[in-house]
Amino acid sequence: MRKTALFSFTFLWLAGTVSRAQPAASSGSTSGGSFSPGSSQSDPARSGWAVFRDATLDSLIDLGLTSNPDIRVAVSRVEEARIRVRVAESFLAPSIRSSMNFNTQSLSEYRPVAVPVTSERLPRLQLNTLQILPIDASYEVDLFRRIRNTVRVTDLQRQVTESDVHITQLIVASEVARLYYLIRANDSEQAVIRRNIGLRDSTISIIRARFQAGLTNEIDAKRAETDIANVRVQLLGLERSRAELVNGLAGLCGQNPATFTVSTGRLGTGFPELPFTAISADQLRRRPDLLQAEQQSQAANVQIQVNRAALYPRINLVGAGGTLTGRIGGLFFPASMTYLLGINASVPLFEGKRNQQNIVLAQQQFKTADYAYQQRMLVAQREAETALDNLQSMRQQIDAQNLALESARYTERLNRELYVKGLTTFLEVLDSQRTVLDSERQLVLLQSQRASYTVALLKALGGSF
């Protein structure tokens, strides 16, 4: 019995010692706490948009990052991945089980026997087996790092799912910013139309006064009324478009569209100045999709080592112990104690080249992951360069449009003065007013596009300049 206890203690101590030493080889990904979208890992998703210096935009992005259902799904998947890592790490520890067995068996009177007997019929026997607190223990000695590399693959997959959260956060934040500036552009365009409606109302008053004085005919008044009615129709269309944009923003922020509102404002012109004139590779590597592609490539590389370990023997330490007796009275006698200690080794001899093909498959998956990384890098470069080129040309367009608008306003004022003096027709006034309206709306459109290109560039750089 002392020898039995010594063997059992030696086995459990050996398994426990190895299992305590080996988890240090893993990445430690399961250390305390759960993944939170508001943790320091996700700060760039918020702080990067502060360059716009718009408190309303900041609050909407915070709301979206907190309440968006897609982000919640991605965060839940991170928690699933963390659990998978803990499951994989559990194979580094020994497996110990215990149970209680009670069996009774009645042997047939005509049972076969190993020695000849004079009678075919034997006495019926009743066999009882009672086993209390049997302990079965096993431990795989990870000599070829199969289990530890499996943990590494699982942890890298966990990092991939965390990158999914950052990708989703970046998409949500950029889409919130894009819709927000479309709403602000809509507000500015409505303000332009309302201002033009006010100017045309004053023009109608002048026409009516001239008509009553007999200086013009009724056609000019009707033309002016028709034109202002058409402008009001455009205003109603903008109000409808704003409602659609607000509803879309409510969905991104995880809010009820029936109660979600965005206060009226204007599209600002103070967009952030870029601290660079060209895009570097280091700026692009901050993108979460590129980080994810790199993590997928690393996971595929480690998977090659996991598959290669299948070619080598798997060694297990096994042990069992407990009491075994056929009657209750002798259950706790020292003579009823039983144990088993041993080592099992499983060596693959022939499996139809399955293990070799698994290695080839893992190598090909690594190549695929590497090609995917290169492809994502090309997409990132294209997106960033396109947004940067658009921004640089947009400044020139806005400057040119400001000059055009200034000229159109001067022409409109001049035509109004000439019309009041009777030196030109109302058609000239009407045409100049339409030109001013078109020029002001075009300027708002260009400013909105500049905002969209700034958002696109920020997104292309991973959410930070």
UniProtKB/TrEMBL annotation:
Protein name: Efflux transporter outer membrane subunit
Subcellular location: Cell membrane
Source domain of life: Bacteria
GO cellular component: plasma membrane
Pfam families assigned to the protein according to its UniProt record, in alphabetical order: OEP (PF02321)
Classification of source organism: Bacteria, Pseudomonadati, Bacteroidota, Cytophagia, Cytophagales
Natural source organism: Larkinella knui
Entry keywords, A to Z: Coiled coil, Lipoprotein, Membrane, Palmitate, Signal, Transmembrane, Transmembrane beta strand
Matches recorded under SUPFAM superfamilies: Outer membrane efflux proteins (OEP) (SSF56954)
